[in-house]
Description:
Largest sheet: 3 strands, parallel
Mean pLDDT: 78
Number of helices: 8
Distance between the termini: 58 Å
Shape: globular
Number of strands: 5
Structural class: alpha/beta
Strand content: 5-15%
Helix content: 40-55%
Radius of gyration: 16 Å
Strand order of the largest sheet: 3-4-5
Amino acid sequence: EDFDNQQALLGQVNANKEKLDLRRRFKKMLDSPFFGRVDFIYELTPSDLPALFRLARVFAYLPDADAEASVVPVVEALRAGLPMVLSDTQVNREAAGEAAAYVRPEARGEVLAALENALEDVSWRRTMQERERRRAELFSEYAVAERLMQIYTSL
C-alpha cells in the first residue's frame, strides 16, 4: 500500500452520541486529488492516540470555534512532534502557541492549503517540530508539578 497518500480522519461523537458527518463537512477537500484513501475513525480511546501519532505525518484538529474543545489532543501532538494544523481558537492558541498553523475550519481552501504545506514543506515541518519540542516542555510532568507548587506556596 502507498502509505504516503493515505489519510485518516478522526471524528467525534456529539452529546447525542451521533457521529458527526465529517464526510459531508469535508467533501470538497476529500474530492481533491491530494487525498488518497481516507478512513473515518469515530471510537477512539486516549490509549489509541500514541499509536496513531506514530503513524501520522501531520495532526489536524479542527473543531468549530463554538465547539467545546480540549487541549489534550493538541498537547499529545506537541509531545509526538507532529506538525499541526489547528482551528484558530483561543484554546488551541493557548496550547500550541507559535508551534502550529491556524486555519478557519469553514474555509476549506485554507485548510487544504495548510495540510498540503504541512505535508510537503520540509523546512516548515522542521521549524514547527523545533517549536513544538520547546512548547511541549511547558506541559511536561515536571513543569506542571512546578507550577502547582508555586500556586500552593502562594496560598
